[in-house]
Amino acid sequence: MPCVHFLCRHRPCVAVFVNKRKKFISLHSEVLYHKIIREICEKYGKDYTKDLQTRMTGTTDREICVTVVDLLKLPISVDEFEKQLTDLAQKLLPSAPLLKGAKRLLTHLHDYKVPMALATNSTEQAVRLHALSRPKLFGMFHHKVSVTDPEVKHGKPKPDIYLVAASRFPDKPKPIKCLVFEDSVVGVEAAIKAGMQVVMTPGPRLQREHTRHATLVIKSLLDFKPELFGLPPFDKTLNKATEITNK
């Protein structure tokens, strides 16, 4: 799904932040995206179940369209489903709120000159939509890599997106020096295959057994402690309201 990822590098450690599909880990658009899919399915009398939603998390838009149309036997083509999904997403996704703690984390790493990149299972068009709504935030990334990038041959759970993103930093850090922030099972799998460390923020419905391969599992980005990975710790004087803002 719209998953996006960020990569950051700092001294002996690189942090790689990941966002899924149109959802960017810094943006809380995954919920909105699922809502759009559910509405399209309901229009044709079909139920987009929570189990199917969990299965689709972290996959590409095209994979979602193919799977949903096939499993739910929708009376429309995959292309038509994708068109409806894209049209609604273009209207609603730019207004998706930030995940709690995302702005604080990105700003903190940027202030300490930790290089970051965005790597996502979303299309380049989707990335542009988000960037237009938050130019300052997206300007913090050294570069952005989408699933439609010519160098990305396969989306997650393959490691392509992470490896391409890491290779575009000037000093080309080794995978083990990269830290990935993920919330999907396929995203964690891709990062592990890439040889990177992974901090996972799983959804409330995800069973614990699916999180066991992550380097660290936290409930929220607000719980992340940068110093655990060799990154500068948060300033303790930060205003708590700033930490949890959704704006």
TrEMBL record:
It comes from the Eukaryota. GO terms for molecular function: phosphatase activity. Coiled coil: none annotated. This is Pseudouridine-5'-phosphatase. It comes from Bombyx mori.
